[in-house]
Specification:
Elements lengths: L23 H14 L11 H4 L4 E4 L12 E4 L1 H11 L2
Antiparallel strand pairs: 1-2
């Protein structure tokens, strides 16, 4: 993650209390659906979850955690996900 998005510089920072939780719909339905839609491969670099050794992240394109429409969600590895957020700051 880029330095300008860590700790208090992160928009999700809540005075050390963590981030706002994602809606249940996202966690239980949409995350698995999006990962399957992308065949468990990062939409950016193509790495497979099995090679990565963990589940892909599911990124909200518009950064709105409440907008869980399929067209707003994309499967990314943690490296590409971090770059996505870092690029916004440039």
């Amino acid at each position: 993650l880029c330095p300008q998005l860590q700790g208090i510089n992160n928009a999700a920072y809540r005075h050390g209390k963590g981030t706002k939780p994602y809606p249940r719909e996202f966690m239980t339905i949409m995350r698995p659906l999006i990962r399957e839609r992308y065949e468990y491969r990062c939409a950016n670099c193509g790495i497979h979850e099995n090679v990565l050794g963990k589940n892909l992240d599911v990124h909200h394109i518009d950064r709105n955690k409440k907008n869980n429409q399929e067209l707003n969600l994309v499967a990314l590895c943690n490296k590409c996900h971090g770059k996505q957020h870092c690029d916004d700051q440039i």
